Amino acid sequence: MPVLVMKFGGTSVATLDRIKRAAKRVGLEVAKGYDVIVIVSAMSGKTNELVGWVNETSPLYDAREYDAVVSSGENVTAGLMALTLQEMGVPARSWQGWQVPVKTTDAHANARIEEIPPENITAKFGEGMKVAVVAGFQGISPEGRITTLGRGGSDTTAVAFAAAFEAERCDIYTDVDGVYTTDPRISSKARKLHKISFEEMLELASLGAKVLQTRSVELAMRYKVKLRVLSSFEEPSDEAGTLVCDEEESMENRPVSGIAYSRDEAKMTLISVADRPGIAAAIFGPLSDAGVNVDMIIQNISEEGRTDMTFSCPTDQVLRAQKALNEAKANGDINFHDLVADTDVCKVSAVGIGMRSQSGVAAKMFKTLSDEGINIKVIATSEIKISVLIDRKYLELAVQSLHDAFELEKAT
Ligand code: ASP
Ligand code: MG
């Protein structure tokens, strides 16, 4: 029998009624002849509540016990989903991560899936089970302790199962009906895309579009899992949602597929550092040791052996970055006149695989922003992305005008 993976996020299993509604969708696929693996999240809000309980009990908690507590939300929904399916006459049973087993690393609270041996579940399908309901987000470490995969991790569970069982497709049911050209709350002209390439989705996910956990997209790309994002609140149809797949020619025709943004960025400038071999390592080494996620970097021209170095990082890491750099200065590892933090900036990015073959995308982006009187503070590019740092007060204007300039209201 062909296997289908269906993942239901927290809002899709938030109440017993919604679990019933999701179970009906599962029943439709079983009727089509699929063996179905259902991956469930915890009921919406549950994981946050569990994390809160852990923090309240033990602020410097033992991560193994954090995982023991925080993984439990998914156990509840897995059992309830199996019961609901049984009530509908569909042969189903629940599986916790360790029962499959979902083998992970021992990086508690942020573990990676290493292997999912398919034998146990396949054997049950052979005995007539039609649906395996698996608790998402959790696994078991080499020492036999329960692990979790990081927030949003059940997306990754779903893709990993689709790869391990060579599923025909992995359907991610969520509270939005697909992937949009930009955030519909910012531009009313945002359009749902019917298809998007893995690479574009990976950029969008890491740039702040929260539909899918970034790691799940990486996995899907590596194992060529056909991934579909759709809403459990819409009527089922073959046209529903967005398909994340290998790139196709048609996708290259549009220079830009989406405008992403991240609101809380900071621009940090080290004024007048010595321009000598090893200086970048001396600056970014301590930042990385301090856990600062540096994104864009520019080194300005050098005059009389000194230069300014600018980088961006999330606003909530500014204090950590300042501490690390001031310590490096006190140790004599680096030397600068001043460290200037601009915490009122945001990042706006245009993403599209068409950029590889079409020229003029960057020029059009910069012209659009300048026509709106928006000053660009930092620019960074990759093969399929152009990001700019601008004043935060222009975020909405920039997103809307770029969406218009690249005619994304016509995207399909
Ligand atoms: N329940 C977990 C979380 O809220 C995992 C998930 O839903 O993907 O992060
Ligand atoms: Mg999610």
From TrEMBL:
Record has ATP-binding as a keyword: yes
Keywords of this entry: Amino-acid biosynthesis, ATP-binding, Kinase, Lysine biosynthesis, Nucleotide-binding, Transferase
EC number: 2.7.2.4
UniProt pathway: Amino-acid biosynthesis; L-lysine biosynthesis via DAP pathway; (S)-tetrahydrodipicolinate from L-aspartate: step 1/4; Amino-acid biosynthesis; L-methionine biosynthesis via de novo pathway; L-homoserine from L-aspartate: step 1/3; Amino-acid biosynthesis; L-threonine biosynthesis; L-threonine from L-aspartate: step 1/5
Keyword Transferase: yes
Reaction catalyzed: L-aspartate + ATP = 4-phospho-L-aspartate + ADP
Domain ACT: 268-348, 350-412
MF GO annotations: aspartate kinase activity
Origin superkingdom: Bacteria
InterPro entries: AceGlu_kinase-like_sf, ACT-like_dom_sf, ACT_Aspartokinase, ACT_dom, AKii-LysC-BS, Asp/Glu/Uridylate_kinase, Asp_kin_monofn, Asp_kinase
Family in the record: Belongs to the aspartokinase family.
Protein known as: Aspartokinase
